[in-house]
């Protein structure tokens, strides 16, 4: 398991990304704390690269807040995009009127659709169908994002496909874990900065 010096990490964040307000500092402390408790991460460079990529993804997907967010839009937009009568809605397993809004994207990465909420809830042992808003709770959102990226819930691609022992981290291609190659280079650059932060903050 990893152990980091929080203050050194936050100081490094300021140098590489800019000023920190209290909310952002709190969000980073929460994430570092969760990572330190995550027994699936051992102190080796591959796992550090994976953590850096997860943090970069969270930063991008949450509009740089590093806090779980709702997908941008209102209920009318979500039902129009993801309703059970739409192609995307059918792919997402939405079967009832209102499912588009009820199961809109939430979290560090956007968990979207009845089928995905059902699967994530069952795998985590919680009822996200009855309480989909729980997907935005930081501890739940962290578990969904990490398990999803480790196990390929989102696109079938997972962290181990791009971060392997004896190989350079493939930050650019790792975007396929979440969303094809959209903004792949931008997120890869963020991940490299996070990797430096993590390395320098190791205790």
From TrEMBL:
Q: Which InterPro entries match?
A: Glyco_hydro_19_cat, Lysozyme-like_dom_sf
SUPFAM superfamilies per the record?
Answer: Lysozyme-like
Write down the Pfam families for this protein, in alphabetical order: Glyco_hydro_19
Domain Glycoside hydrolase family 19 catalytic spans what residues?
77-146
By what name is this protein known?
Glycoside hydrolase family 19 catalytic domain-containing protein
Species whose genome carries this gene: Lysobacter gummosus
